[in-house]
Amino acid sequence: MPVYDLVIIGGGPAGLSAGIYGARAKLKTVILEKNVVGGQAFTTREIVNYPGFFSGTTGPDLMATMADHARGFGTEIIKEEVVDVELEGEEKIIKTKRGNRYYARAVIIATGSQPRSLNIPGERELRGKGVSYCATCDAEFYEDLPVVVVGNGDAAIEEAMYITKYASKVTVIVIHDEGIVDCNRASAEKAFKNEKIEFVWNSVVIEIKGKNELEAVVVKNLKTGKLTEIEASGIFFYVGMVPATKFLKGKVAMDDQGYIITNDMMETSVDGVYAAGDARVKYLRQVITAASDGAVAAVAAERYLAAKEEFRENVLTADKPVVLAFWHPAQEESLTAVAIMEKAVNETGGKVKLVKVDMSRRKMIAQKYGITKTPAALLVKEGKVCRELSCYLDSESIKAQLNCHER
Ligand SMILES: Cc1cc2nc3c(=O)[nH]c(=O)nc-3n(C[C@H](O)[C@H](O)[C@H](O)COP(=O)(O)OP(=O)(O)OC[C@H]3O[C@@H](n4cnc5c(N)ncnc54)[C@H](O)[C@@H]3O)c2cc1C
């Protein structure tokens, strides 16, 4: 497998947007997508809140446009499920279910999230035989048939309305008291007026019945304890999402729910590894914020790779010894030390050069050389450290240290 500048795991809006920005910046970019390109957004029929589409668009249309855009700039999109990663080294290794290995100089994790299952009897057995998590994919199979929807957030209510285009009746099971739903008001009001929708309040689904196909759903009223069997041919679950990050456990820092922790540059705890979209800890999980994250992650990755290349040219393959002077903008003492170091280097008449390293931005370089505090300075020759320099001397004494003896 060739070495890619950028491997993006996941081809939803975050991954596609990262692909657009990455390939446009001339990075050799590949997106590995295990399923349908477009992610969750592909599974929603109507998208009315993505900027530029006042009259709305469909998830599949919007995602196809994004995928064409990414491919247009040269991003490869390959159907592969990533099952393991080695992220620590300079060259990251991405391993797939088919046994392939992709090598990357930087990685963006854009694996999003997947529907939560309730793990109730019958749910796993009847998956694909009446149990579904995607109305866009499956609603049309229920023409004139009764269907149950579980949940009361935006996705549940909006998809319930979409299903009424096909189903004879849609029963929505809501855990809350009558009239209380967790979705936006406009959708709730429309759903309450929809004659094909019946709400069942204070209730949860406890069992799904059927042999080879779904026949009925058992619902428990949480206030009375009463069990009711609702005849149905299909059930759609919208009871939340879980991040698709299981294969990354122990590889990048996550919160206790498995969402990846990043800063506002989408950097994870591992150098050269970024996370974008629904898979990361964030406030709002939508197509627009996923696309935005993808753009930020790709630009951050591009700058990281450029900085690495610049470091290679300026330091590792330099034709003269280099003083690496580590400083931190919040530490005045380090600024003074670097200024004295610079004076000493200038007085060598070009025999030695100085490269300043801002520790607040170039953590990777500091880590590589084991530097934990500033000021600090190293003399590097032919890519190897030959000595540590004392930063607390005058420029004359520093100049005397600028002879290379291998460390
Ligand atoms: C029913 C529904 C309706 C919605 N409606 C709207 C709406 O109207 N407006 C809106 O803005 N947002 C909506 N959203 C939310 C929006 O779809 C998501 O916020 C957005 O898709 C997140 O994008 P993402 O790229 O981070 O992740 P995802 O869209 O989840 O994409 C992640 C991709 O990564 C792939 N993947 C996961 N693991 C691996 C792996 N190991 N190897 C390879 N590939 C992998 C997945 O197959 C998937 O394609 C809706 C969501 C749902 C479920």
Automatic annotation (TrEMBL):
Gene Ontology CC annotation, any one: cytoplasm
InterPro entries: FAD/NAD-bd_sf (IPR036188), FAD/NAD-binding_dom (IPR023753), Ferredoxin-NADP_redctase_2 (IPR050097), Thioredox_Rdtase (IPR005982), Thioredoxin-like_sf (IPR036249), Thioredoxin_domain (IPR013766)
The reaction(s) this protein catalyses: [thioredoxin]-dithiol + NADP(+) = [thioredoxin]-disulfide + NADPH + H(+)
Cofactor needs: FAD
Enzyme class of the recorded protein, top EC level: oxidoreductase
Listed EC numbers: 1.8.1.9
Record-level Gene Ontology MF annotations: thioredoxin-disulfide reductase (NADPH) activity
Keywords per UniProt: FAD, Flavoprotein, Oxidoreductase, Redox-active center
UniProt family annotation: Belongs to the class-II pyridine nucleotide-disulfide oxidoreductase family.
Name this polypeptide is given: Thioredoxin reductase
Organism expressing this protein natively: Neomoorella stamsii
Underlying gene: trxB_1
